[in-house]
Design brief:
With 122 residues, this protein is of the alpha+beta class. The chain has helices at residues 4-7, 32-44, 47-53, 58-70, 93-117; strands spanning 22-24, 27-30, 77-80, 88-91. Residues 36-96 form the HTH lysR-type domain.
């Protein structure tokens, strides 16, 4: 077996990668996929259109929205049933705050991974 030391004079560098999610006592509250769904609901004004835009079934999207709404003191998404004027969905103020919170924590997490990666050696 040939060791890297004999093949290269340059030592290997390592980088940390990771994912995180925010949990409530009932389970997962926010993660990358849920935030993407919220952002698409904001963009499209509809759970079904948001789901289609990220190749997710309507049922799965609705279940995720329902889960996020029940894991929060106030709903993240407000929806209206269809009919003559059509239905729709929009983010509440809490939904907007949840997206901002996730992105702020993600930035801190990403900074931690980058800084900690600088000192990874074997």
């Amino acid at each position: 077996m040939i060791h890297n030391e004999t093949m290269n004079a340059v030592p290997l560098t390592y980088h940390l990668r990771g994912r995180f999610w925010i949990e409530s006592p009932q389970g997962t509250f926010l993660g990358q996929g849920r935030v993407a769904l919220l952002e698409r609901i904001r963009e499209h004004g509809s759970i079904s259109a948001a789901a289609r835009s990220i190749q997710m079934s309507y049922r799965q999207a609705w279940e995720l929205v329902n889960s996020m709404n029940t894991h929060s003191d106030t709903p993240l998404v407000s929806s209206a049933t269809g009919g003559k004027g059509g239905g729709g969905a929009s983010l509440t103020e809490t939904g907007e705050k949840a997206i901002a919170l996730y992105h702020a924590v993600y930035a801190d997490f990403d900074d931690f991974l980058a800084k900690r990666s600088e000192s990874l050696t074997l």
